[in-house]
Amino acid sequence: MNVQPYIDAIEEQGYVIIEGALPGSVVDQTKAELEPFLQKQKMGRNDFEGFCSERVYALLAKAPSVAEIVEHATALAIVDAFLAKNYLLSSALAIKVHPGETPQSFHRDDVGGAFLPLPRPLLGMSTIWAYDDFTENNGATEVIPGSHRWEQAREPSAEEAVKVTMPAGSVMVFSGNLYHRGGANTSDGTRLGITPQYCAPWIRQLETMTLVAPPDVAGRYSERVQELLGYSVNDPGFMGYVDGLHPKRLINPDYRGRKYRDDLPAS
Q: What is the residue range of 61's domain?
């Protein structure tokens, strides 16, 4: 697939919507896996999480089919164009918005770079996958187009925002420094979305993924997912090693990775 038009849209507006990116069968499978964790027992703990919203963290330990979107070929091809190689999965969470939810505050996802004033190099990319239709009144994400290019002092306002409406199975890919928020749910139904977010390889992940998916869990997934979780090193260099060895050795003791010189052991 030619992803250049998507890349161009993100450079211009800060986001792009791709419809039909996920088959309905996968949507249904993930919703079934998440059902035990979405029983209205753990609603949001503050206004940002949403008092009328449920959030499920540590997804790859709870819903294995989420790996399909974490390593989705089209989404990652877009992220590849914006982040340095060896980038990581920073967080992955499900958000089910219930009736009565109020709008979030506007925010950016690249909080790992908050100490660097804007404008700054891009440090993160985010995705939001629709597992229900995102509509005008059920809590669809709101974005402020072009805000990824703003200076530090400029503040967002609701009048500048547009609602991201899209059918289930769609994904929005957007810049980590784009202002956005979860919208209000004034409908009588719920809205489920899942948001994998990616960060530059030298930034600490929002969610400690190697604890979410320790070696026995990570071993169930593809090498690409393992690398995104943090069973990888930032190359060139060896940032991310464990006890002087490549972290993939925790999953596969027989792993023999990079070898700089014949007289050195494999890393």
A: 4-206
**Domain assignment present for 229:** no
Q: For residue 226, which amino acid is it?
A: Q
- Buried b / exposed e over 20-42, threshold 16 CB at 10 Å, is ebbeeebbebbbebbeebbeeee
What's the total number of domains in the chain? 1
Residue 236 covered by a domain: no
Of 87, 68, 106, 82, which is closest to residue 15 (Cα–Cα)?
82
Taking the model in full, what pTM does it have? 0.94
Residue type (1 letter), 63: A
Mean pLDDT per 10-residue run, the chain (267 residues)? 96 98 98 98 95 98 98 98 97 98 95 76 95 98 97 94 98 97 98 98 95 97 98 92 94 78 43
Q: Are 138 and 132 in contact (CB under 8 A)?
A: yes
Q: Is 266 domain-assigned? A: no
**What is the CATH classification number for the domain harbouring 182?**
2.60.120.620
Residue 168 belongs to some domain of the structure: yes
